[in-house]
Amino acid sequence: MIVLLKPNPDKAQLDSLIKWLESKGVEIHPTVGTTQTILGLVGDTSHLDIDLISALDIVAGVRRVQEPYKNANRKFHPDDTVIKVGNTVIGGGNLTLIAGPCSVESEEQICAIAQKVKESGATLLRGGAFKPRTSPYSFQGLRDEGLKLLSVAKKLTGLPIVTEIMDIAHLDSFDDVDVIQVGARNMQNFELLKALGNTRKPILLKRGLSSTYEELLMSAEYIMAGGNNNVILCERGIRSFETYTRNTLDISAIPVLKQLSHLPVIIDPSHASGKSALVAPLACAAVAAGADGLIIEVHNDPEHALCDGPQSIRPEAFDALVKKLGRISSAVKG
Amino acid sequence: MIVLLKPNPDKAQLDSLIKWLESKGVEIHPTVGTTQTILGLVGDTSHLDIDLISALDIVAGVRRVQEPYKNANRKFHPDDTVIKVGNTVIGGGNLTLIAGPCSVESEEQICAIAQKVKESGATLLRGGAFKPRTSPYSFQGLRDEGLKLLSVAKKLTGLPIVTEIMDIAHLDSFDDVDVIQVGARNMQNFELLKALGNTRKPILLKRGLSSTYEELLMSAEYIMAGGNNNVILCERGIRSFETYTRNTLDISAIPVLKQLSHLPVIIDPSHASGKSALVAPLACAAVAAGADGLIIEVHNDPEHALCDGPQSIRPEAFDALVKKLGRISSAVKG
Amino acid sequence: MIVLLKPNPDKAQLDSLIKWLESKGVEIHPTVGTTQTILGLVGDTSHLDIDLISALDIVAGVRRVQEPYKNANRKFHPDDTVIKVGNTVIGGGNLTLIAGPCSVESEEQICAIAQKVKESGATLLRGGAFKPRTSPYSFQGLRDEGLKLLSVAKKLTGLPIVTEIMDIAHLDSFDDVDVIQVGARNMQNFELLKALGNTRKPILLKRGLSSTYEELLMSAEYIMAGGNNNVILCERGIRSFETYTRNTLDISAIPVLKQLSHLPVIIDPSHASGKSALVAPLACAAVAAGADGLIIEVHNDPEHALCDGPQSIRPEAFDALVKKLGRISSAVKG
Amino acid sequence: MIVLLKPNPDKAQLDSLIKWLESKGVEIHPTVGTTQTILGLVGDTSHLDIDLISALDIVAGVRRVQEPYKNANRKFHPDDTVIKVGNTVIGGGNLTLIAGPCSVESEEQICAIAQKVKESGATLLRGGAFKPRTSPYSFQGLRDEGLKLLSVAKKLTGLPIVTEIMDIAHLDSFDDVDVIQVGARNMQNFELLKALGNTRKPILLKRGLSSTYEELLMSAEYIMAGGNNNVILCERGIRSFETYTRNTLDISAIPVLKQLSHLPVIIDPSHASGKSALVAPLACAAVAAGADGLIIEVHNDPEHALCDGPQSIRPEAFDALVKKLGRISSAVKG
After folding, report:
1. Do residue B42 and residue C36 have CB atoms under 8 angstroms apart?
2. From the list A168, A192, A308, which residue is nearest B55 (CB)?
3. In this predicted model, what pLDDT tens digit does every residue of B106-132 receive, in sequence order?
4. What's the CATH fold of domain D83-333?
5. Do C64 and C4 contact (CB within 8 A), yes or no?
6. Could you say which DSSP state residue D321 is in?
7. Thinking of the domain B2-63, which architecture would CATH place it in?
8. Which of B103, D195, D200, D208 has the fewest Cβ atoms within 10 angstroms?
9. What is the 3-state composition of chain C as percent helix, strand, coil, each rounded to the nearest 5?
10. Is the CB of residue C251 less than 8 Å from the CB of residue C285?
């Protein structure tokens, strides 16, 4: 960390700052220029509060040199994290396909889709029980009943379940859930992250709509600080000025997050675009860029399509897409 | 609401859509053009799920004409909402000043600041007990102990308390809190909003960092749908490409939100800028643009400034600012 | 186009509006609801000025149904535009590789790189002669001398040249340039677009840093309105809140622009990321998503790397990348 | 400037970097830590190309300490720049009001508005002759004829003229123009900026829609590097995710730009909001925040309002606003 001092800093305040920093276990290397004095801080600075230092009267600015996350940082954990879920693994060169409907609606629906996507090659089943909706008047999901139906589909197909949690109070009902999803709007719900850090369940952590890579990794760090290292990062589109797509898939997140962190990176092309016609090209791009997996919305009943999101694709389209993704994955590996 | 159909829509699907819409209680007025057919929906469309309709095969697009919020909408409630808190009111032409430290740190600190800001003209005391921090390694607030210290300061000065809640589970400890703040990162924590809708406490709802006015009003609607109409909207800066300021104060939020809604609008110039030198000019601008109040960070102890955010101002600066704001408020009213 | 009227519009103003719209050759279909009257406009509305109509006292809002661009619109030109440049074509299923240095620096440099990238499979040579730089104190390019050196490299290798124009006044010097590039910062330099519309040269039009798809297509429309249909669209990254990468590649631009328009779509992974390590994964993603080509910065002289941008890759890396892209392209086509 | 080196940098490359930097006239202060070596650069670094240094193999990152602009920097020119235009001055505590129609349409129109706004207190006349329009099919302004009509209005009222230039080639026609405006979309049209730097005309430089303060000041620096110090900065709204307003006025730009630079700062509330109802509150906010002036669209003919933008206000509204702004300006000064 580098602390830039204002010109002619008060001597007493500077001594007090240096003493305080040293008490935190960092070494200080000052550079005195004609117009600017710089303190180079060497050692573990991840526990220093950058805002507090910036607030000091004598400080002009603070620049980080090291990343503020440790457990999630590839520098300290060079090997890929591989997460075992049921009979499958996420990360480590595996291409994981998670598929299922936007919302769980009925036993028939979730079981039928589960069987279909399993046949096509999906290894995990997704489905929303608790639904975060912008409007209080929109369908909020089947909630506990939805979790039960997911368990039925899991028993039938053997597919582990991925579903979203919206509040700590619901955690007790998530016993049979294999991967707990944290939605984009809860990426900085720090109390929820802490609670999930106290479990040992794999957590699929979605990036917030306008969050940076560092903020995503700091949220992962919240979970890992509790001892739960089973974190899967998920890029699901950021908010941009473009309104044609619901969000804008940040494809660079794949190589960058994999470089900064050892955690697996999953892409959600369905929510990223909000349009079924874009799911296949975005999924192909994600695999070509090195994603560890995809989470895709698949619906089953075009006649009652009122109940599916505009970003869901049909089982036949999913089946064709899986074949294409396999070819691209091989092409990338050479 | 206007539904744009794709060219040559399937007759059976169109009939089914029209029947479904009519079953929701809306009247349909079709406009048949040579290249485009449009359905004009007349009646209360706030309960229709725009995403579901957009997903239909025969639909090219949906455009809202009416706002999707009702309780928060000025069209249906033309008069300003005025919220009584202790001996003061928020809204209705009153200029409310909320002031206090970033975090509650000790009884001496919070009581000293409370007395200072009261003398200058603040009518509510703010102070963080539960602190949402990007890093799990940063100070997370005194939590329950912080709430107790706020109560001590309230008893001493008579100032009602404003403080942030981070999880439903903490609600029981907020009995003596007068106004519960929902932070920007929790603006779409829908389960929390629902729980607060079941209380009758005034809620200070902060706008999310990249949220639109409509999304803010829909989050207010979540609270109001539970029967709690005591919602105060708070603009605290949006994320922009500018990195010189921590966030970018959206000053237009004041006249726009007051036009769209009857709820009071409060401005937070401290978090909007992240720099103490900008607090005064932004506060002046907010009052000139018609804000119902301000929430400002004030610290008291420059010698130990390590504990205050870079956006806090000193009591003397707050005192001078209050006088200036009074003059501007009079100038605006003419 | 749909015009939403305010409640109880003035009769005389409404009649005057309808008469004016009819004089522009559009048919009017009014829908009268209890709270809202809507005018459905049928016919060619691309020449109507949406701002002027919105400004009317009786108008609450205007919503477009049809795209405001015509020549660039796939609806009216279903077949892919294929642009012939020298011995190669851009568009129509071809994967075009444009490569070369950030800036032209010397005859040795540009000729050496041109030969290298040609051997690897590039079919066009890029190189900056006029350089748009944020600072007036940065190197501004060799300008006219740079154009001459590009011509030398073209003569030597037979590769057609792509280079950027920064002002109409320079157009005379661009005779030997095969594809004229318009930079992101000039995407809405309308006078320049008009001047280029009067030539018949292929134009590589880069998307502005915060422009929408529609704005990009409207800028293409400016060129095409002058009779020059040889426009190549180029996505080169948008500005986002992420600062780790210089810009954020909007990979969705590929399928969306190809759906909305018949013009070829080229991706610039070098400027999109600003980091050489990201060029390969982004290039792979672009080909997987269906791009018509890539424009990539390649430098040749690691010992004097001070003169190359941080996003340039070396000839050997380019060579390996081209092979990978070929495999992915085949995998996508199946 | 601070250069962060990668761990274990190549000795020869490091020596070559240090030698190169010293040849540019800067002193090097290295800080060698256990995991990181830092070079502190002391001296005038504004001429160093940050991109080139970042591109070096041994460099992990570069952080600026000093601003890259010099002529526009308040540090080197502590006193406010005051620009004389006709009989009035811009900057230095004066509140300048620039008013006039969106587009010049006829002699009657421009002269009538000029007289009206002069009576209300405007000291400069604005009016568009060359109009940057997103669509090639929209009205592009009266161009040279518009400039002539502005001159007629100037002769009649004595008000100096402010109007926009769109291309260097038009510069000859701008002889009688007193302040040349550079539009937001041309803020980084560097060739145009250079040409204007060679004149001695006052330049009203509008901030780009997604530009940072530093980028705006670097564009001012382009003009000033040519010897023309008569630059007026203009904030006119940035692009944000909010679609209710056309743009989002960044009110913080006023205190920040005035702190970073000595140049006058003018606010355009008309384009910032795109809505006439927001012009007054935003103008009031701008004056309260310390703006040096305002540029406001005023139209005169409500019956033919089709020709005015939705953000124009009527002369009576402008007259009332001017009175209010005077009161606020006095209140701010105390």
Report:
1. yes
2. A308
3. 999 999 999 999 999 999 999 999 999
4. TIM Barrel (3.20.20)
5. no
6. H
7. 2-Layer Sandwich (3.30)
8. D200
9. 40, 20, 40
10. yes
